[in-house]
Amino acid sequence: MGDITAQLADIVGGHNLLTGDAIPDDYGHDEELTHPPQRPAYVAKPATAEEVAALLKVATQHQIPVTARGSGTGLSGAALPRGDGLVVSFERMNAVLEVDTTNQVAVVQPGVTLVDLDAATAPHQLRYMVHPGELSSSVGGNVGTNAGGMRAVKYGIARHNVLGLQAVLPTGEIIRTGGKIAKVSTGYDLTQLIVGSEGTLALATEVIVKLHPRLDHSATVLAPFADFDQVMAAVPLIIASGLGPYILEYIDNVTMAALVHTQNLELGIPDQIRDSCQAYLVVALENRTAQRLDEDVERAGELLGELGALDVYVLEGGSARRLIEARENAFWTLKAAHADDIVDTVVPRGAMPKFLAAVRGLATAAGGGAVGCGHAGDGNVHLAIFCADPMARKKLMTDIFALAMELGGAISGEHGLGRAKAPYWRALEDPVKVELLRRIKQSFDPAGILNPDVVFAP
Amino acid sequence: MGDITAQLADIVGGHNLLTGDAIPDDYGHDEELTHPPQRPAYVAKPATAEEVAALLKVATQHQIPVTARGSGTGLSGAALPRGDGLVVSFERMNAVLEVDTTNQVAVVQPGVTLVDLDAATAPHQLRYMVHPGELSSSVGGNVGTNAGGMRAVKYGIARHNVLGLQAVLPTGEIIRTGGKIAKVSTGYDLTQLIVGSEGTLALATEVIVKLHPRLDHSATVLAPFADFDQVMAAVPLIIASGLGPYILEYIDNVTMAALVHTQNLELGIPDQIRDSCQAYLVVALENRTAQRLDEDVERAGELLGELGALDVYVLEGGSARRLIEARENAFWTLKAAHADDIVDTVVPRGAMPKFLAAVRGLATAAGGGAVGCGHAGDGNVHLAIFCADPMARKKLMTDIFALAMELGGAISGEHGLGRAKAPYWRALEDPVKVELLRRIKQSFDPAGILNPDVVFAP
């Protein structure tokens, strides 16, 4: 181990290598709820792709498991290290290298946070549109989990907004994939294979992301519904209307009450309507002119009324922003309420009513509860699971995931499998696919050093 | 061979298996220009995924190279069979299985043509937006090549519009990937790995495609420019304007003259302007209301004027449609003019002026010519190469591709490598990536039976 420490320190410099008790607690966990923290053996903070490559060569040589870390805001435990492992922390590789207005892309290092990227692109009236709740998350983390978020209904997920990578293979080879180009049909798409691979195939050391024009005018419409099924039935019709919302969320009444209470939201909804409401739709619209936005908001209001909304509230700038921020913080609210686990399952949007009704039934039968909100336009359901008994909870989670898959969905829409959801996936997925993925993993990582507990069993 | 014939006939039925001289010439080629046709040993026409699986098992058992065939409209030779090979033709698997309006997807068999899919979705006011020039192409072919086309600037390429697959592995195992869902983060994305793999990894037997609302109002604006560089400089500014064109093409003056001549186009452009024009921009806009469309067309006209257009023509319904159709048929026009090869290179859109100027210089130096048109919004350049001498042409093509890669682009934007462009790719690509792709190929196809001449050398 002394030898390994010396080798690693040689690469990044002694002050950028932490070992043993000198490693702060933060490096031992991400925001996943069910696993205890685990202090790694080493934390290295490289400054260049070449340093990352040298670290991976040493790790391969000594069979050291490697976990990449961005901001540590993941929700599935993909950044949870092994006790004998090396954390490669990208905190020093946090530069926006270029904002290219002609090609409408930014070239960034993986440690850049979404807040910093937004600040760098704002002066150019451009924006990276992937918008997971946590804006301190890093672009590298977005790549690893294939992050989604509220704006995905219009702008797509990380997969649609990451155009190219520089990445280091576990062998220490450095490759470039994609580029400042929106299309390519030249061999297999390595960019898209690495996006969403949760640090199990290669480590991204540079990311080319797509930027979109910032539209000047936006508004948020909030519509309470008496009936959950009405909310879900409304979603496809809003999508088909051509209004093109950039946010289309549902929030159930329990979650909304918690958000209002913990974050002092003032939405101007009378008690009587609030009490008879089972769920809310949040519809955010944007346009390049104020007049068009006003027309679209009016049309959205009419449409929501026709679809059975109890009322329609057009939120002003400040309260609209606070509602969206509260929605971003829903995870923290539910964590503070002592949720035992979380689910970010995706199902075909038309299957949401059936899925949510069945999940409520399953949770009740398990002696627990399931409440939440989600990206209704994408069929991506975020649930906090309350079920204290571990055995009952494991069965409940398995039943929920099995149901989602039976309805044509998948276990995770945007958080990834990490360590937390991978065992469910291995139990429920077609074994032919599990084995195929394992062979793909081996084609990148023959020594099996990259995040060996994530996706696959070690 | 008699034994193999009997085994294959057992699977698909004798009348759905062709051998020897009974095989029509069409099965021996696609629309690639440089390879002679090659009659395969067998053509099988399966009706189900199970039949495809059984065919691949026999092929694996006897080491028979397998080439999948949709409509045979590919431009890179990915559907060009081996003489000792089996063509799996999807012509009988041509059903639209479902148009799901709630989830806005269609589920189709791979042999469905774009014309038939468009007819099936039109009554629902929905549309599959991938629009390669040739509308007799099949959805399965779109999956194989990761097809793009004119609408990609707004709606993305096949990769963005294929949400899920049923696919048969060379081992005969049948898997399902993705689903009626726009996002998923549950293991590696097999859908996106198979899209664009040109029949070298697995054969798609069912495809779930995304549908978009058909907007009721559209218009086409044609703008001649005196100077090539002005055209290219205009493109990023049109994108940044927020007008959101669904087509943004350039056509050089030689190609436009050929289109006008061969297809009797009447565009109403005075001789004087036509003679002083080096290239044209075609900008198509759409909206859900006529009034907004009119406003957008006016704004586009102003903008094009500010950007240096010699004039701006708003084309009426009929002539707009004929211009777009002529552009779709550009390949046939250039083929009829005896083009020696074609290029569909992609570069960052900002690099197009430099790339096109350098290509013209290279072509002239080689004693040939390079003319064309392209998806300007995507940096995807379509060139017809005129250079009769094979050695000079090979060097010219190599120089063009090397330049594109040096500028941060790639050899093919939407046609694929096929047999025709794969040798250039192997010569120019980072060998680390070629070897990585080869290992990925082996993880799907250990016997190496699927299109062994495509992407890799056999």
Automatic annotation (TrEMBL), chains A, B:
<dbReference type="InterPro" id="IPR016166">
    <property type="entry name" value="FAD-bd_PCMH"/>
</dbReference>
<protein>
    <submittedName>
        <fullName>FAD-binding protein</fullName>
    </submittedName>
</protein>
<dbReference type="GO" id="GO:0016491">
    <property type="term" value="F:oxidoreductase activity"/>
</dbReference>
<dbReference type="InterPro" id="IPR016169">
    <property type="entry name" value="FAD-bd_PCMH_sub2"/>
</dbReference>
<dbReference type="InterPro" id="IPR036318">
    <property type="entry name" value="FAD-bd_PCMH-like_sf"/>
</dbReference>
<dbReference type="InterPro" id="IPR016171">
    <property type="entry name" value="Vanillyl_alc_oxidase_C-sub2"/>
</dbReference>
<dbReference type="InterPro" id="IPR004113">
    <property type="entry name" value="FAD-bd_oxidored_4_C"/>
</dbReference>
<keyword id="KW-0274">FAD</keyword>
<dbReference type="Pfam" id="PF01565">
    <property type="entry name" value="FAD_binding_4"/>
</dbReference>
<dbReference type="InterPro" id="IPR006094">
    <property type="entry name" value="Oxid_FAD_bind_N"/>
</dbReference>
<dbReference type="InterPro" id="IPR016164">
    <property type="entry name" value="FAD-linked_Oxase-like_C"/>
</dbReference>
<feature type="domain" description="FAD-binding PCMH-type">
    <location>
        <begin position="35"/>
        <end position="214"/>
    </location>
</feature>
<dbReference type="Pfam" id="PF02913">
    <property type="entry name" value="FAD-oxidase_C"/>
</dbReference>
<keyword id="KW-0285">Flavoprotein</keyword>
<keyword id="KW-0560">Oxidoreductase</keyword>
<dbReference type="GO" id="GO:0071949">
    <property type="term" value="F:FAD binding"/>
</dbReference>
<dbReference type="InterPro" id="IPR051914">
    <property type="entry name" value="FAD-linked_OxidoTrans_Type4"/>
</dbReference>
